[in-house]
Design brief:
Strand order of the largest sheet: 3-2-1-4-5-8-9-10
CATH superfamily: NAD(P)-binding Rossmann-like Domain
Distance between the termini: 34 Å
Oligomer: single chain
CATH architecture: 3-Layer(aba) Sandwich
Structural class: alpha/beta
Order of helices and strands: EHEHEHEHHEEEHEHEHEHH
CATH class: Alpha Beta
CATH topology: Rossmann fold
Helix content: 25-40%
Number of domains: 1
Shape: globular
Length: 214
């Protein structure tokens, strides 16, 4: 199985860690204070280890960015050497908060966080995915009444194939995985985040995904 590092220990990161570990992968959660976080999240899964973010990036084969999108670029650029040669899976959205704390404006209009990461990390293939849904749908797509779509963007076909395999481990059927093309297509899926706050304000924090109907 694959060695996977996850940067970010919020709801997204821990949710992904739990499901990927259950699928048999060796998962390391990259944290700022491994001892404190390990104590708070003890019992997540026996395959989940904890390390600082630099060690996590250096010692795993695939790294998932689940850090806050508005600070991801600076954080991951600082890990350029550790991320070289690894696949970086970016599931974050870079937004500035509206007054109510929900996503407001995009941090990179006319571009995307994924494109910015790929430019800053030329030796690291970046794959954008799982950023068009609430976190619980990432690992349980079959819980929605209508089968959702997950989008994939990236320049490296081999990296996208590897990530597609991970999506399968998370419960995504091949027919629901939509490869949009190169990394520039991530600006389209990242822009979809702008519809999310309006849905949340009207319907509350209920699982949903922005999907393609055929």
């Amino acid at each position: 199985m694959t060695s996977i590092g996850i940067l970010g220990t919020g709801r997204v990161g821990t949710n992904l860690a739990r499901k990927l570990a259950a699928a048999g992968h060796h998962v390391t959660l990259g944290v700022r204070s491994p001892e404190d976080t390990a104590a708070r999240t003890a019992g997540l899964a026996p395959r989940i280890a904890f390390a600082d973010q630099r060690t996590t990036a250096r010692t795993t084969d695939i790294v998932i960015n689940a850090t806050p999108g508005d600070s991801s670029l600076e954080r991951l650029t600082d890990l350029r050497a550790e991320l070289a040669g690894k696949i970086l899976v970016d599931v974050s959205n870079a937004t500035r908060d509206a007054p109510d704390g929900l996503p407001g404006d995009l941090c990179y209009p006319g571009s995307s966080l994924a494109e910015q990461l790929q430019a800053a990390l030329p030796d690291t293939p970046v794959v954008k995915t799982l950023n068009t849904m609430l976190f619980m749908v990432m690992t349980a797509p079959d819980t929605l009444a209508v089968p959702p779509t997950v989008y994939v963007s990236g320049n490296d076909e081999g990296a996208k194939k590897t990530v597609t395999g991970l999506l399968g481990d998370l419960g995504w059927q091949p027919e629901r995985i939509e490869d949009l093309g190169d990394i520039t297509t991530a600006r389209a899926t990242e822009a979809m985040i702008l519809v999310v706050p309006h849905i949340l304000r009207r319907h509350g924090f209920k699982p949903f995904a922005v999907s393609l109907a055929r």
